[in-house]
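Folding Problem: From Residues to Backbone Shape
Fields: amino acid sequence; protein backbone structure tokens
RECORD BEGINS BELOW THIS LINE
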Amino acid sequence: MKSTNNTAPQNFWLIVGRALFGFCPSCGKGRLFSAYLKQVEHCISCNECFGRIKADDGPAWLTIFMVGHILIPILLAVAPRITWPDWVSMIVWPGLALILAIIILPRAKGLFIAIIWRTNVKANK
């Protein structure tokens, strides 16, 4: 799973930061995703292998967790103070949840891939 390019372990927070922005956790130059959520087989810059790393349901779980913890306090603080019709609330709050989920999901997947890569967890075949 790990290539022989890295001789020394890297700073955990540097690796996490690279992955959150969609870059290779190893070198920080290559892209981690070839599409919205499709991870690359290997980094084009350092040739680090990411194809066998499977994040499974972790990113979805983290996304739901984050969206809920961001949106619910806002909703509880704002909803009692506004006089929108119900149909506006039924559009605004789910729309905001969808936008947050679209923003958070690839970052959550990058985070899980980076942590799995960093801890050198072996993939199931």
